[in-house]
From TrEMBL:
Key words of the record: Carbohydrate metabolism, Hydrolase, Magnesium, Metal-binding
Molecular function per GO: deacetylase activity; hydrolase activity; metal ion binding
Cofactor(s) the protein requires to work: Mg(2+)
SUPFAM superfamilies for this protein: Glycoside hydrolase/deacetylase
Organism: Thermobaculum terrenum (strain ATCC BAA-798 / CCMEE 7001 / YNP1)
Coiled coil: none
The keyword Oxidoreductase belongs to this UniProt entry's keyword annotation: no
Protein name: YdjC family protein
Listed GO biological process terms: carbohydrate metabolic process
Domain of life: Bacteria
Cross-referenced PANTHER family: CARBOHYDRATE DEACETYLASE, YDJC DEACETYLASE FAMILY MEMBER
Amino acid sequence: MSIALTRLGYEPGTRLLVVHADDVGMCHATLPAIRDLFSVGLVTCAATMVPCPWFPAVAQYCREHPEADMGVHLTLNCEWSTYRWRPVSTADPASGLLDEEGYMPQSPARIQADASQDAVAHELSGQLGRALAAGIDVTHLDSHMGTVFHPRFAQAYIDLALDNEIPPFLASQTPEWIRSNPGFDVDLMLKVYEDAITAGVIPFDNLTMLPLDDPEDRVEQAKRAIADLPEGLSLMIIHPAIATPELETIAPDWQARVADYEAFTSDELASFVEAEGVQLIGYRQIREALRKHKQAATE
């Protein structure tokens, strides 16, 4: 039996799906996209990148739409070559959070090798704090390009989430992924994972992301992924944006991002999801389950 189904109060055999829009606020093209997607209803939640230039506009949208299911896409690196951003907590090169030009490094591996653990913990806390102070009812935490899912940073990520009673992204496949990384302290990472589950974190049973290198037939790609969903709680990650000159200049994968937007605003895909009997939920429901678990543990 799925841990998620049990803790969320669903019957065995239920197929739950969270459709998650990543990278909101990375550039302006993500803003009209998420407004439209939330209106349609197939996308159930999203996460914003606090260090990015369009974060203030995301915060304004969330203040005007308090029902928006918005998390924080914790960001420690900037992968683009001509469009960059900086940490919110420091300008000190000794932190390991900046490259030679004063921006976040492009490579997650560089952050994982060089960044101070204290500096990373401070940066993660700063990003969440800035989102909360801006009026966002933060529903969850996850990680841009998976940078925090490393033995040096994972505990700070989990602690930040649990201290604020906000669910962090974890997947039931995490133990297998940990064991497949020979450079990891496997025992340490497994303890972090197991302690998080004990503390009330609900792991996803299945994870899928529509590829950023194959924008063709996006509706059909999404249909196949949804048809193949197993029972339990699944997360589907997309990267939606509208087509703009800015996006095309920034992102070589812009066509896939636009394809995500177009697919998940289509009536065809909405009808398919309904016919499949998949139940869509957001992170706010998962957050409520975490908070109930923590409350029960203290009674």
